[in-house]
């Protein structure tokens, strides 16, 4: 025999749950999250995995598991993290240099990865790791995303350094160091992706050499990022052809340490 439950405006039997109770149960159900909340949770989970578990990300890439979501998240992280870091670097000069540097810094990473990706695949295959192009693309983008997350973490400290009145050459050196640390964090994904086996360190050394060569040249072509404070114009790209990245860093080191420091084009 069923009993009745009185709800204003309607009677329900004990065998027929009230609509309010049913809707509350559905709302409390874990699978009833809105699509936007589920997407945000997946993105944040992937970002945390890229930052804290590079080995798991490398295994995911090799297994080709849910790569579209990983690639999309990595691209967004590169745009955000590296863009913020570039904007902070450009704040040394201010004005249009801020959006210029914010656009160019992610471009450096993406162009470098685009140049290195096919070569990475060939090198890995030569040393006994026949990865598919999907695996290589996902792995190098994950490496770029991890580097961008480190850049995002370093951006406040760099901004404080600039705000405290650091010199042009000092800011340039600190920015280069920060960029280098971020690159090392990104290479950690590739190193773990190689796994165990013969030729691991030779392959990794080849990766590092190629990445430094392509990344350094790309960064030099897309300069300036800081822009000299005394410059009257803010070019998106400089036309200066002399010197090079190593020469510019050496000049800034000389200026910071009290050496002669030859003046180079805008960077």
What does this structure look like?
It is a single chain. Helix content is 69%, strand content 3%. Strands 1-2 form a two-stranded antiparallel sheet. A hairpin with a 2-residue loop joins strand 1 and strand 2. It is globular, with a radius of gyration of 25 Å. The termini are far apart.
Calculate Rg over CA atoms: 25 Å
pLDDT < 50 stretches: 9-30, 260-266
Strand order of the largest sheet: 1-2
**Count of extended strands:** 2
Distance between the termini: 85 Å
The total number of structural domains is 1
Secondary structure: helix percent: 55-70%
Average predicted confidence as pLDDT:
82
Characterize the overall form. Answer: globular
Order of helices and strands: EEHHHHHHHHH
Please report the number of helical segments. 9
Describe the main β-sheet briefly.
Answer: 2 strands, antiparallel
| Secondary-structure class | mainly alpha
Strand content: under 5%
């Amino acid at each position: 025999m069923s009993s009745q439950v009185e709800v204003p405006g309607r009677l329900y039997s004990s065998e027929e749950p009230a609509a309010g109770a049913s809707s509350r149960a559905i709302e409390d159900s874990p699978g009833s999250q809105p699509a936007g909340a589920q997407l945000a949770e997946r993105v944040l989970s992937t970002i945390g995995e890229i930052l804290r578990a590079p080995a798991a990300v490398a295994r995911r890439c090799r297994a080709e598991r849910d790569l579209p979501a990983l690639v999309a998240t990595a691209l967004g992280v590169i745009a955000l993290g590296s863009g913020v870091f570039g904007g902070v670097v450009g704040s040394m000069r201010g004005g249009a240099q801020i959006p210029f540097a914010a656009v160019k810094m992610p471009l450096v990473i993406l162009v470098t990865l685009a140049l290195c990706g096919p070569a990475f695949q060939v090198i890995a295959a030569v040393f006994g790791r026949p990865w598919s192009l999907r695996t290589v693309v996902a792995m190098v983008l994950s490496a770029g995303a991890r580097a961008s997350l480190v850049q995002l973490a370093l951006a406040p400290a760099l901004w404080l350094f600039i705000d405290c009145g650091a010199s042009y050459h000092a800011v340039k050196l600190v920015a280069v160091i920060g960029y280098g640390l971020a690159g090392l964090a990104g290479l950690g994904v590739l190193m773990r992706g190689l796994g165990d086996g013969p030729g691991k360190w030779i392959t990794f050394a080849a990766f590092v050499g190629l990445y430094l060569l392509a990344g350094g040249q790309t960064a030099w072509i897309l300069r300036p990022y800081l822009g000299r404070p005394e410059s009257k114009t803010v070019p998106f790209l400089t036309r200066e052809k002399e010197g090079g990245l190593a020469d510019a860093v050496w000049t800034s080191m000389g200026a910071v340490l009290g050496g002669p420091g030859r003046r180079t084009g805008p960077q």
